[in-house]
Design goal:
Elements: H1 8-19, H2 32-37, H3 40-56, H4 66-81, E1 85-98, E2 103-108, E3 112-113, E4 120-122, E5 129-137, E6 169-173, H5 179-188, E7 193-197, E8 220-223, H6 225-232, E9 238-243, E10 245-258, E11 263-273, H7 287-302, E12 309-316, H8 324-335, E13 342-348, E14 359-361, H9 377-390, E15 396-398, H10 407-411, E16 416-420, H11 429-435, H12 459-478, H13 487-490, H14 493-502
């Protein structure tokens, strides 16, 4: 999961129309019984099961691995036992393997060999190749970035690449736009390989695991800041790059579990991604969201009330590789003419971060840091905000930045919302004064690492966030009033324009995307 990005184009295009949304009021629903049934003890039962699965399978549950297959089996068994109609939704996954050591060396002037793992990393989905060519930087690299770490725009636009990029190796600096966007632009400019170097901010000196574009067809690497600056200031050195990697199409699966009751034309999709990164077991990212959703689903099944609207619990595959499972699923709905059945998408990706903050997705983009959600997203946000206020708990907004599985839903006009407890971002002093923990430290020091285990969870966060998950899910499932004024509103010109604007968001995949 996670990060932040400004999506100014989408924001400007749909801000005014979403503020004028004709969304209906959401009914008040008594959720006390459900919240009482949802416990941290129940969540931890599932978390420990995912930990055992990871331990038995190379300490991870990544897509296209036996650990992911075992995670799918666990969720299927639990959801069927709870009485849900469960099916597997198939999608194509580009399984990528690096077959052997890579090479990055300067051949002229002043030959030098760089070390894989410390000086550079091969990106996931890099193409294979053996290339010797000149380094050609984009024309907008500034060291250090004038706006601070993460503010550079190198490689974000087609015009950033000089004509001599064609047939040579593009050099780009980390910054505002997704890595996949940089690599796509470099390939389009005719580069035979592409390098991105870290921008030298605090905690941004070394190469980090990132993803390229599946089937990009050229070698793609990330280097440290030092190596990047050395190549940038080297007067156009000649570099030798070798990557031995294979991409093979492979069937993977989302787990879809529907309630037996409820209006299918007002389906509430409650989603969390099931896969981990290859570097660790993913017990917070995103065992915490997955385990919470299973616990909420099991406790709903014990209630004597039936949902008015169908609840669909969705456990997404290959989120960490680029939102592949959820994207494929939504596109299937669009192709089958069933996207209009989805009333809302609730997304829960990381709920137990050790240095947590109670982040709520900013549906109306009041913070100005992301995209405005489709009509109804602001109302979903208010469900969470009103609930937390009723409990005397403060929240912070988190932007729709395209970094999790809500992305394709909002790109197709579906209202969305959800919760997030923090990833690699740094807690501020203000947040420390509100939530406790430690300012100046990441929300989750074990994000995308081997230490993301059952010992990497804050149970206070799990307790508070899971109650909000239960409250929002049952409120939307029982609400008689349509979230967005019925089907007529969904098909309005405003909604269609919002849909087109939201589609400008690039998917944010795996690893860190910018």
């Amino acid at each position: 999961m996670r990060g932040r990005a400004l999506v100014a184009a989408a924001t400007a295009a749909i801000l005014s129309m979403c503020l004028a949304s004709t969304a209906a009021a959401i009914d008040k629903v008594d959720t006390k019984k459900l919240r009482k049934g949802v416990t941290v003890r129940g969540i931890m039962e599932h978390e420990r099961a995912f930990q055992r699965i990871a331990i038995a399978h190379d300490n991870n549950r990544a897509a296209a691995t036996p650990g992911y297959d075992a995670s799918v089996d666990y969720v299927v068994n639990r959801m069927r036992k709870a009485g849900y109609r469960v099916r597997l939704s198939e999608f194509d996954f580009p399984a990528w393997v690096q077959n052997g050591p890579a090479t990055l060396e300067r051949t002229a002037p002043d030959p030098a060999t760089f070390a894989e793992g410390t000086d550079y990393l091969v990106t996931q989905f890099s193409g294979a190749g053996d290339v010797t060519a000149k380094i050609v930087p984009t024309n907008d690299i500034v060291v250090p970035p004038p706006g601070g770490a993460g503010s550079g725009t190198s490689g974000c636009e087609a015009g950033d690449f000089p004509a001599e990029t064609a047939g040579n190796i593009a050099l780009m600096q980390r910054g505002t736009c997704p890595f996949v966007q940089k690599f796509e632009n470099a390939k389009t400019a005719g580069a035979v390989a592409a390098l991105v170097f870290n921008d030298g901010g605090e905690g941004r000196e070394e190469p980090i695991p990132i993803a390229s574009v599946p089937n990009i067809g050229i070698p793609t690497l990330m280097t440290s800041n030092d190596v990047g600056e050395e190549l940038l200031n080297g007067g156009g050195p000649t570099v030798h790059v070798v990557v031995d990697a294979t991409t093979t199409p492979r069937a993977q699966y989302n787990v879809i579990a529907d309630s037996k009751w409820g209006d299918k034309d007002r389906t509430i999709v409650v989603g969390a991604h099931l896969d981990s990164v290859e570097e660790g077991p993913g017990i917070n990212d995103n065992g915490s969201g997955t385990s919470t959703d299973i616990e909420v689903a099991e406790q709903i099944a014990k209630l004597k009330q039936k949902p008015r609207n169908r609840i669909r619990f969705a456990f997404w595959g290959a989120e960490e590789a680029g939102l592949i499972g959820s994207t494929a699923y939504v596109r299937q709905l669009v192709a089958n003419g069933k996207i209009s059945q989805i009333e809302a998408n609730l997304n829960f990706d990381m709920l137990g971060s050790p240095n947590f903050v109670r982040f709520v997705y900013d549906g109306d983009n009041s913070g100005g840091e992301g995209a405005v959600g489709p009509p109804g997203s602001a109302e979903i946000e208010q469900v969470f905000l009103k609930y937390f206020r009723s409990q005397g708990l403060v929240t912070d907004p988190t932007a729709f930045d395209g970094r999790s599985d809500y992305g394709e839903f909002i790109a197709n006009g579906v209202p969305a919302g959800g919760l997030f407890s923090g990833a690699e971002g740094i807690k501020t002093e203000r947040q420390e004064s509100i939530y406790g923990g430690f300012a100046g430290m990441p929300f989750d020091e074990c994000y995308h690492q081997a230490c993301d285990s059952v010992f990497n969870l804050n149970r206070t966060s799990l307790n508070q966030m899971s109650d909000a998950v239960a409250h929002s899910t049952w409120t939307l499932a029982r609400s008689k009033s349509p979230l967005v004024g019925g089907k007529a509103t969904k098909k309005s010109k405003k909604a269609k324009r919002a849909k087109r604007a939201a589609k400008r968001l690039k998917y944010r995949g795996q690893f860190r995307t910018r």
